[in-house]
Task: structure prediction
Amino acid sequence: MKTYVAVFLTLSCVLLLYLNCCDGKTFDVKLLEEPSGLWSHNEEDKPLVMQINPANFSGPPHFRSLIGKCFNKSDNMYQYKFCPFFNVTQHELSLRWNPYNGILGVWQDWEIANNTFTAMLLKEGDKCGSISRTSRVVFECAPEHQLKNVSEPRTCEYLFTFQTPFVCHPNAMLVYPTLEDHLRDAWDELEGQYVREEITKKGYNKELTKIFQRAGFIQTGTKPLSKKSSDMLSSNNSNTGNNQFTSLEQCTAMTTWQTLIILQKQMSSVPGHVTSFHSLNRRDRNNTFDC
Result:
């Protein structure tokens, strides 16, 4: 705005000088060259400053190959850039003098439900009034990596759909196989306590959240999981499906999982019996997802 005012005043002075000082005579006027960048407002070139640092990598091991890569999607007004395990940004394509270019969220947590990584949560983006912008990235099976859809269900809360072959296998996003042995043991013990009714559902959710925090899936300070999120006996685990990874050549998980599904069906009629991924012995658990 200051630039526009300065130009207007300069032109006005030139006109007044011509009318009042020169008796209608013509003379040469040398215009100074425009300073570099005077009329450009390429905010996208300016570095964006994150309020917090991204969390460390966590989650399915095959997702590690996405580190350092970014995926773009543009519509008529904005360009969005999703960089897994880093941040997500928005760049306004408007020609107005101050287009918005900013951060919609910084990588922090996994959303976990039914023993499955269901979404990436990116938090503490640029300020939006009294709150910070946040983003949730859900996944969809596809032959190639691409950012498919972007929406804003609530003000300054964004929802992205990321297509990838990394989620095509029915067991690709399971949480339990990614845990270290001591955390698996802790989860086994916790589930046993809950089955024996030694702890309440609320207590179970609280302790399960702590296990996920120790694994780095959830940052300290995140609220305990809801009942739905911590339900270990998901029907999803019984869906063998026919999908296979399209970018990972070796994946031999199905044999053990088919055995588990048969075991679940056989034991479902036994009163009080609980069968889940934890029912497998240590050797079988380690071999259920070897890709």
About this structure: Residues 2-21 form the longest helix (20 residues). Helices lie at 2-21, 181-195, 201-215, 254-267, 282-287.
